[in-house]
Amino acid sequence: MRAATEIGARLDGGYDLLVSTGAQRATQTLACFLVALGERVPSGVVVEAGLRSEREERWRKAYEKAGSGALAAMRDADPEFVEADSAALGAALGRVLDALPDGGRALVVGHSPTNEAAVLGLTGEIVGPISKGAGVLLVAGEQGFRVESLD
To answer: From CA 51, how far away is CA 26, in angstroms rounded?
Structure first.
């Protein structure tokens, strides 16, 4: 909780929506972020259960087979699974973006490698493993998405 409140205090704020995958730790982290931000979030905190894979054991097996937590390596180890689950996770991430007002911002908290898989499913771009306290920024534009690393 201490780390989550410290991270939350460093966030820029100005979010329209906070999103959890529904995992208890993700929801608790968002609560700590909200306290540390010290500001209202107009649309509050929601759970987008589609951002949490229903096949976590298969992700573990892909990780073991790949010998790495890098999404590209796991995709090489189990391409059909990673493609299918990334598409489902990306659709859920798309629903989050659709819920935002024009120019709106959301903060989504989940876990690796499914966070990275959601980005892949939505944008077609592979991002490296996201460490605790880090993330990616997705900016929607007329030409698609721009993905930036946030460390």
So the answer is: 11
**If you search the block for the tokens 């968002």, which residue do you land on?**
30
Query: Can you tell me the distance from the alpha carbon of 71 to that of 107, in angstroms, rounded to the nearest whole number?
Result: 21
| DSSP H or E run through 58 | helix 56-66
In tens, the pLDDT along 11-40 reads 888 999 999 999 999 999 999 999 999 999
Closest of 84, 85, 125, 95 to residue 19, by C-alpha: 95
Distance CA 43, CA 56 (A): 29
- Residue 119 CA to residue 89 CA, distance in Å, equals 8
- Specify the pTM: 0.90
| Half-sphere exposure of residue 27: CA atoms within 13 angstroms, side-chain side | 10
Give Cβ neighbours of residue 118 (< 8 Å, ≥ 6 apart).
51, 86, 89, 90, 92, 93, 110
Domain ranges of the chain: 2-128
Under a CB-based contact definition with an 8 Å cutoff, are residues 112 and 120 in contact?
A: no
Please provide the DSSP assignment of 60-102 as one string.
HHHHHHHTS--HHHHHHHSHHHHHHHHHHHHHHHHHHHHTSPT
